[in-house]
Design goal:
Mean pLDDT of chain B: 84
CATH superfamily of the largest domain in chain A: Porin
Largest sheet of chain A: 16 strands, antiparallel, barrel
Distance between the termini of chain B: 49 Å
Order of helices and strands of chain A: HHEEEEEHEEEEEEEEEEHEEE
Radius of gyration of chain A: 38 Å
Number of domains of chain B: 1
Low-confidence stretches of chain B: 1-30
CATH architecture of chain B: 3-Layer(aba) Sandwich
CATH topology of the largest domain in chain A: Porin
Order of helices and strands of chain B: HEHEHEHEEEEH
Oligomer: heterodimer
Shape of chain B: globular
CATH class of chain B: Alpha Beta
CATH topology of chain B: Glutaredoxin
Strand content of chain B: 15-25%
Helix content of chain A: 10-25%
Mean pLDDT of chain A: 83
Structural class of chain A: alpha+beta
Number of helices of chain A: 4
Distance between the termini of chain A: 100 Å
Largest sheet of chain B: 5 strands, mixed
Number of helices of chain B: 5
Number of domains of chain A: 2
Largest interface: A-B, 42 and 37 residues
Chain lengths: 437, 183
């Protein structure tokens, strides 16, 4: 039998259960009501804030307009409010631009450059040597001195034929920028003839081919043209209305000299004061069906002496064509020599040299083929005095493979025939590992 | 009066406004300056002023390139085109911005010819030209290292992705094979 205590206990339990279930509901409902109120309150505050912002904006505009009107009336000659605003904006833009330019300046001198090492059944620049070789360690420095004054220094460490490491300041230029159309340089620069000499510099990584055509090599690598000039150089690009670009160069400098069979650019001056004078004019299509095509002409004249004190007035003229696109890199250059013996009686001599290179920019690399030929008059003192001034033909095939964005592996197979001073045939297999940093 | 309560009351409308305007935030932690903190004076290839801050609100894929580049830039552009196709397939919008490394040559006219010859005519692609100072500053802020070797601009492959808040959320480099997966 159940007593009153039991009944009371049951009622209390039921009440407790009821409270347990009901109280949270009450609390939740209360909280919900509280959140809803709060959000409503916040929304009202937001609306008030937005209204206040709108009122303040309107008031500021009214005040600015009244002030501008007042100042315009006070100074009849002064520009209108809009005009003055434009002037102020222009000034601010100038200050911002100058500030940005200053912020964009390098703090300190960045060190960049190139290096390459290789292997060959013949040394790529001296076929009397074979095996492994170190190429260039090329430091490229362009300290920035301001908006107008520009500089360029290229310091190259390389191994000589004897294996000793030599240092050469290949380029040392200080220039003044007149504008996009003209920059004047003073110093030692790559003589602007043809295309290769000012497009393929000492850094091997930049060039798709493993090496330059032999006759266009730098002087100490067997080149027969004055690749460097110490003097003054005016260069620029004029953009045409149809998108084409006219490129021009004019220069003069110390006449070079042949010292021990190698052309020397006379970095400290020469002893007779004679000059090299030359120029180049090119046109590049940047639009239409021949976009990427550049053609140009060039000419130079210089008085060259050798160790035997023979003096030759060297006159070189020629033309070049380049088709440089995302897919193709084709280069053709022609050089004609009309040299005059000024110290003897051998008279005028005519020679020629040229090359054609075809390259394809595939996704995996750049295969290329090149044919080059030099037909040089051996009775011309200018060629006779040069160790590499002989006639030759060379056919090459090669490939550049980019290992990554900073290093490339190149392979070249070539056959060279020398055709006058000596008669020979040399086959070469060359490999090069070129990097940038 | 509890001063904190007052501060809370002032801050709440702002927080609420941000919630209303910005929606829920899903951005990854910022890895660089936002679009609004970068230089803003750029011209597109139609010579229209194109401040980068004006692109906030949309995902922005930004790279640097130069018109005369035949080595890295064509690859970058081709991969961006591929990325555009992949985003199209997923129905995800994005703005593609290419800033010229070489202000002297990368003029609006040059970019105009560039995009015409490569059929890059979509309106969400922007090819921008700026001053030398602004270009250098932007490159430095976003980590686009480059230097000039005569007419060559020596640079790396790099893409920076901003989210709808204008915050850098992703960076793509030469080691990234699947750019869509990076996004």
């Amino acid at each position: 039998m159940r007593g009153p205590i039991y009944t009371l206990s049951r009622r209390l339990l039921a009440l407790a259960l009821l409270l347990t279930l009901w109280l949270p509901t009450i609390a939740t409902a209360a909280a919900a009501a509280s959140d809803a109120d709060r959000i409503t309150e916040l929304e009202q505050e937001l609306q008030q804030s937005l209204r206040l912002i709108a009122e303040l904006t309107t008031r500021v505009q009214q005040l600015e307009g009244a002030k501008a009107q007042e100042q315009g009336q006070a100074r009849p000659g002064a520009p209108s409010g809009g005009g003055r605003l434009d002037a102020v904006e222009s000034k601010v833009a100038q200050i911002e631009s100058a500030s940005a330019a200053r912020r964009g300046d390098d703090s300190g001198l960045a060190m960049h450059g190139f290096a390459d090492v290789g292997y060959g059944t013949r040394n790529p620049f001296n076929d009397a040597l074979k095996g492994f070789n170190i190429g260039n360690l090329d430091f490229y420095l362009t300290p920035r001195l301001g908006d107008r004054t520009v500089t360029l220094f290229e310091l190259v460490f390389e191994a000589s034929d004897e294996g000793a490491v030599s240092v050469d300041l290949e380029r040392a230029q200080v220039g003044y920028v007149f504008g996009d159309q003209a920059t004047a340089w003073l110093g030692r620069f790559h003589t602007p003839y043809g295309y290769t000499n000012t497009a393929m510099h000492h850094g091997a990584w930049v060039n798709d081919a493993l090496r330059r055509p032999s006759f266009l090599q730098f002087e100490d690598h067997g080149g027969i043209l004055p690749a460097h000039t110490v003097g003054a150089w005016l260069t620029g690009t004029v953009h045409g209305a149809n998108g084409g670009k006219v490129q021009y160069d004019a220069y003069l400098g110390n006449s070079q000299q042949i010292v021990d069979g190698v052309l020397d650019m006379r970095s400290g001056g020469n002893d007779h004061g004679k000059l090299i004078v030359g120029g180049r004019l090119g046109y590049e299509w940047t639009d239409g069906p021949v976009e990427g095509l550049t053609i140009g002409v060039h000419a130079l004249s210089t008085s060259i002496e050798d160790n035997a004190l023979n003096r030759t007035q060297v006159r070189v003229y020629g033309g070049y064509g380049v088709y440089d696109t995302d897919r193709w890199e084709h280069i053709a250059e022609l050089y004609f020599f009309g040299n005059e013996d000024r110290s003897g009686t051998t008279g005028r001599h005519h020679s020629s040299a040229g090359f054609l290179q075809l390259g394809y920019r595939a996704a995996w690399g750049v295969p290329y083929a090149r044919y080059e030929r030099a037909s040089l008059d051996q009775s011309d003192n200018y060629f006779q005095a040069q160790a590499t001034g002989f006639s030759y033909t060379r056919g090459s095939v090669g490939v550049r493979y980019d290992i990554d964005l900073k290093s490339a592996l190149k392979l070249e197979l070539s056959r060279t025939n020398t055709t006058d001073r000596t008669i020979s045939r040399v086959n070469e297999i060359l490999a090069q590992y070129a990097i940038r940093f | 009066m509890n001063p904190r309560a007052g501060r809370f009351r002032c801050g709440m409308p702002l927080a609420l406004a941000l919630l209303v305007v910005g929606g829920p935030s899903t951005a990854a932690p910022a890895a660089g300056p936002g679009l609004g903190q970068l230089p803003q004076k750029w011209l597109d290839d139609e010579r229209r002023e194109t401040p980068l801050a004006g692109l906030v609100g949309r995902r922005v894929v930004l790279t640097m390139a130069y018109v005369d580049c035949h080595r890295i830039c064509p690859t970058t552009i081709a991969r961006l085109e591929r990325l555009q196709q992949q985003l199209d397939a997923r129905g995800e919008p994005a703005e593609f911005v290419v800033v010229g490394y070489d202000p002297k040559n990368d003029t609006p006219a040059a970019w105009h010819r560039f995009r015409a010859s490569r059929r890059l005519q979509r309106s969400n692609w922007h090819f921008l030209s700026g001053s030398t100072g602004d270009t250098s500053l932007l490159a430095r802020q976003l980590g686009f290292g480059f230097w000039k070797y005569d007419d060559h601009v020596v640079h790396d492959l790099r893409v920076v992705v901003f989210d709808a808040h204008g915050v850098v959320t992703r960076q793509i480099g030469p080691d990234n094979r699947d750019w869509l997966a990076v996004l």
